[in-house]
Amino acid sequence: MSQYLRNTWYVAALSPDVGRSLTPIKLLGEAIVLYRTEDGRPAALEDACPHRKLPLSMGRLKGDAVECGYHGLTFDCSGRCIDAATQARIPPFAKVRSYPACDRYGLLWIWMGDPARADEKAIIEIENHDNPAWNITQGDSMLIECNYLWMVDNLLDPSHVAWVHRSSFAGAGTDNTPMQITADEHGVINSRWLLDQPPPPFYAPLVKFHGNADRLQHYEVRYPALAVNMGIYTPAGKGGPDMVEDADTYRMISYHFLTPIDDDNTQYYWLQHRNTDPHDEALTRKVAAGAKAAFEEDRAILRAVHLGMKNKTTPTTGLLLDAAASHFRKGLAERIAQEQAADAQA
Ligand code: FES
Ligand SMILES: [Fe+2]
Fold first, then answer.
1. By Cβ atoms counted within 10 A, which residue in 17, 25, 45, 321 is the most buried?
2. Which residues surround ligand 2, an ion (CB under 5 A)?
């Protein structure tokens, strides 16, 4: 059974990285070529000519169509063959798969399932994206050489910051404060309040009040591979489950988009959002660089975990902290099985 959910939007690229040239990518093990039409709309086609399977990305753009670089079969952005230069008749069954695609939040999204079910309204709503009081740190991307489910585990695991992010997100209580798991039809949330502690190094320059803080770590992953990671800081005594938001409440929300390239590689995209200093560009650059450095720390761990688990020769041990990830994996496996059963019946 494939481990991918298909009837969903994945991030295929940062929008500015795709223009009027043929850009090959791989997603869910499939080779895809991205480009933009003359009026700027994104197009996504199977990256394999149906004649000899040469990647179409080795050909060239002709208007809104793609011409194969071997013998010139030409496909429009719906994947239909519209020209066969070497013969009078266009082969009647020559076509390539086309994928619905759109731009949102500076990201280029692709729908990998049944095109008839692609609905742009299903893309996550990023609250406050256009709120001028909030800063948006534009997205960035990196390759992580691991299965995307190891990243899901990581993004449902607030405790790892105590060891992996010692100089940024770690702080007193991150190693051993109990967590609370909640789940609904969208995914799983693992969260906890850490009360009356100094803000950790990454957040200290961002939080506006002095003294100790109550800190929420909210780690959420939505099916199949989109994480919402929120940090809330309030002056000590004002936080906790009954927090009342006021002018001192600092919020940082990171959105993480995990795009499976194949079973061993994931393209990681993210953007960040905070409710302070919307126009402080120096601070924004610092936050962006700090986050990227932390994600590099995750990357080193995750690629080694992927290899370790793939090549293991001795038994593994479960920990209580795995509960949220286990819950998520079970929910995702059920959804994938349902999707595949429905496809088999269609
Ligand atoms: S391989 Fe594309 S036309 Fe021959
Ligand atoms: Fe991390």
1. 45
2. 298
Which of 45, 47, 51 gets mutated to test ligand 1 (max ligand atoms within 8 A of its CB)? 51
| Three state DSSP letters for 116-131 | HHCCHHHCCCCCCCCC
pLDDT at 324: 98
Closest-lying ligand to the alpha carbon of 94? 1
The CATH architecture annotation of domain 131-335 reads Alpha-Beta Complex (3.90)
Give the pTM.
0.95
Q: What are the domain boundaries of the chain? A: 9-120, 131-335
Question: What pairing do the DSSP bridges indicate for beta strands 180-184 and 30-36?
Answer: unpaired
* Ligand 1 lining (C-beta closer than 6 Å): 49, 51-52, 54, 68, 70-73
How many Å lie between the centroid of ligand 2 and the Cα of residue 159?
9
pLDDT exceeds 80 at position 2: no
Q: How many helices (H) and strands (E) are present in the chain, helices listed first?
A: 4, 17
Q: Look up the CATH superfamily of 9-120.
A: Rieske [2Fe-2S] iron-sulphur domain (2.102.10.10)
Kind and range of the H or E element at 338?
helix 323-345
- Looking at the CA of residue 53, tell me the nearest atom of ligand 1: 1
pLDDT digit string, tens, across residues 29-82: 999 999 999 999 999 999 999 999 999 999 999 999 999 999 999 999 999 999
Q: What's the rounded mean pLDDT across residues 118-135? A: 92
pLDDT, position 178:
93
For residue 257, what are the CA distances in angstroms to 110, 152, 221? 12, 10, 10
Ligand 1 atom having least distance to the Cα of 84: 3
DSSP string, 273-309: EESS-TT-HHHHHHHHHHHHHHHHHHHHHHHHHHHHH
If you measure from the C-alpha of residue 24 to the centroid of ligand 1, how many angstroms do you get, rounded to a whole number? 17
Of 96, 83, 88, nearest in space to 50 by CA: 96
β-pair type (74-75, 213-222): unpaired
Of 22, 52, 82, 95, the residue with max ligand 1 atoms within 8 A of its CB, to mutate for a pocket test, comes to: 52
